Amino acid sequence: MNVSAVQRFIKKNDLKSARNPNLRDRKAFEEDAFGRMWQADTCYLPHITEDGKCQRVYAIMIIDDHSRLLVGGELFYNDNAANFQKVFKDAIAAYGVPSKLYVDNGCSYANEQLSLICGSLGTVLLHTRVRDGASKAKIERQWRTLKETWLYGLDIDQIHSLSQFNGMLRDYILNYNHANHSGIGCSPYERYQATKDAVHLPSSQKWLDECFLNRIIRKVRKDATVSIDSVSYDVPMQFISQKVEIRYQPNDMDTAAILYENEHFPIRRTDKVANCHTKRNNPVNIDYSQIGG
Questions:
Q1: Does some domain include residue 177?
Q2: Is the dihedral of CA 148, 154, 160, 163 positive or negative?
Q3: How confident is the model at residue 293, as a pLDDT?
Q4: Which of 42, 135, 170, 226 is surrounded by the fewest CB atoms within 10 Å?
């Protein structure tokens, strides 16, 4: 088949104007009140040098779908699940529990711990399709605004600590939340005020802390220990040979405890030398040969 024949075939079947078969049907959407859905994401920011060490900075932010209010945001040297959980927890403490959380499939957002946390909160965890960041349009648009109106105007060489950088980010968030937003015709804070009663607040700080504890299941060994990340921990002996649920604050195993019948039983890192001198609470052995009668 020659080139002319191919061109006539394309023109006859209108193939040149045919839609891209991979094009996804998208429609603009918006929740009807504050707290109905939050969108969260991570963005790479420039490196800064602190204490002589140059490190990449990651921004983790959460935006409310309805009001466009930035409910959470912080800078870190690592993009991981624990750091997102911190931002998420702080946002809930300040603004209440969202009905839905919309995130991508990065390791910070697609993990069992976040699923368990959202289950405890009563928040529906939603994920975008793989490599479909455009579906989180509001948080993606926020990254563009952050870069164009704030980041590109900074002298990065004059930022010498993450704490200093975070202070500047807090100022940006405050200004953004109170400035007029062209997409909604008012400031995000004004729109938040109009429907903020739709969201429920945490019942207590203790309840919120409990919701955000990470959880793992382990079987207790015969020597009353469990292994977590190749580290041995002593547990109360009554749990020997049982499967137990251990809860702890992210990156802080000093808070770890077994949850059993709504009671917490602390565990501690095994110290074999100290255990060598610890008196065992074993039953008393009775020598029946010494008993008369």
A1: yes
A2: negative
A3: 43
A4: 170
Mean local confidence (pLDDT), 36-42: 95
Residues 86 and 223 in one domain: no
CB-CB neighbours of 94 under 10 Å: 10
Q: How far is Cα 258 from Cα 244, in angstroms, rounded to an integer?
A: 7
> Are the CB atoms for 71 and 91 separated by under 8 Å?
yes
Both tokens of residue 197?
């009663």
Q: What is the DSSP string of 106-130?
A: STTTSSHHHHHHHHHHTPEEEEPPT
Give residue 109's domain range: 38-204
The span from the CA of 126 to the CA of 115, in Å, is 10
Report yes or no on 230 lying in a domain.
yes
- Residue 151 and residue 255 in one domain: no
Contacts of 221 (CB under 8 A, 6+ apart): 227, 240
Mean pLDDT of the 228-245 span:
93
242 and 186 inside one domain: no
The whole-angstrom separation of Cα 156 and Cα 159 is 5
Rg (CA), the chain: 27
Q: Which residues contact 148 (CB under 8 A, 6 or more apart)?
A: none
Length of the chain measured in residues: 293
Helix (H) or strand (E) holding 23: none
For residue 158, the model assigns a pLDDT of 95
3-state secondary structure of 284: coil
pLDDT band at 252 (very low <50, low <70, confident <90, very high): confident
Looking at the DSSP bridge assignments, the partners of residue 245 are 217, 259
Cα(88)–Cα(60) distance, integer angstroms: 9
* Cα–Cα dist 244/228, whole Å: 12
User: Is 283 within a domain?
Assistant: no
Query: Each residue of 182-195: pLDDT tens digit?
Result: 888 999 999 999 99
